[in-house]
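Worked example (supplementary).
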Amino acid sequence: MKAIIIGGGKIGYHLLLTLRERGCEVTLVEKDMALCERIAEEAGTDVICGDGTDLGVLRQAGIARADVVAAVTGKDEENLVVCQIAKAGFDIKKSIARINNPKNIPMFRALGVDQTVCSTQVIADLIEFEFDKDVCRIVQTFERGSMLLVEARIDEGSPWLGSFVRDLTLPQDCVLASVLRAERVIYTRGDTQLCLGDAVLIVADREAFKEIKKALHSGGKHHAKNES
Amino acid sequence: MYIIIIGCGKLGRTLAFELSDVGHNVSVVDSDAEKLAALGSGFNGLSVRGVEYDDGVLRQAGIARANCVVCVTADDNLNITAALAARELFGVGRVIARVNDPAKKSAFELLNIETIDPTELVSYLIRSKLEGEKT
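After joint prediction of all chains, the assembly is encoded as:
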């Protein structure tokens, strides 16, 4: 596989090393001459010094043969333009953009960037995750975060404890996938009763997740408790 | 016409005054408050400070009823991104962008963005002046 990385900052540099370690052919493009030289020396590889939004530079980087283009500069608009050019000009199947400002995520998606990575969002999610550890947490995200797999723990204070699945008030955009009970997987039906210690797996969108969280917190006793 | 000007540098400012003087509805967007302030009190259009391609900012500038968006910042990537947002997300009928680096013109063309390249224009004007004097 051949990958082109635009941006030789910390992310670009470590991406270069990681991908190369995995046997990928990687070319890095960076504007700053001094940075290029440093990377070339440290990583022992050729770095292309130039503007990643310049068609000539991309050609020189071998974009014609590239499978993936990852734009990871610190400027969102630059990353977007790289991905747009890669798609429109070189028919790159997979373009990945780093997004610095989470507010730009919807626009990048609307303009057809395949994958977006927003470290701000990821870290914010992780922090939220830590906070919600004992009640409800995101286990996995799909489709760039538009679909979530959420795990809800049923403990003593849970408003869901003892409820039948059919009696739960759930938001529109979510579905109860299964319950993990003592190493066993139960695929929930309306007559499944939720017991102490159950981990309920729910597929939901972000809005529904917020509502579920709110519903689970309404039990009230959670906040004071810390199991760990 | 309702025209949004993205970028309030010398070109954006001149354009804003000239267009509003002939009766167009003009709003100006720039992320730099100082540049917007340079418009002064003489400008009677709308000015919005914020990220030039942010949908909230563009909405505030009235993009829903804009007939035309002109992207004239000094950053080609900003111009391209704002132009794409205006065209693809808001369906603005006419979008024109300024090319700062002539080498980047092909990128604009690739993405079907109508451009004005000041370098090319000025060079043409100077050349025609000189050649006009010769004859």
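Two points are worth noting when inspecting this output. Helices of chain A lie at 10-21, 33-43, 55-60, 76-90, 105-110, 119-131, 206-217. Chain A has two domains: 2-121, 132-217.
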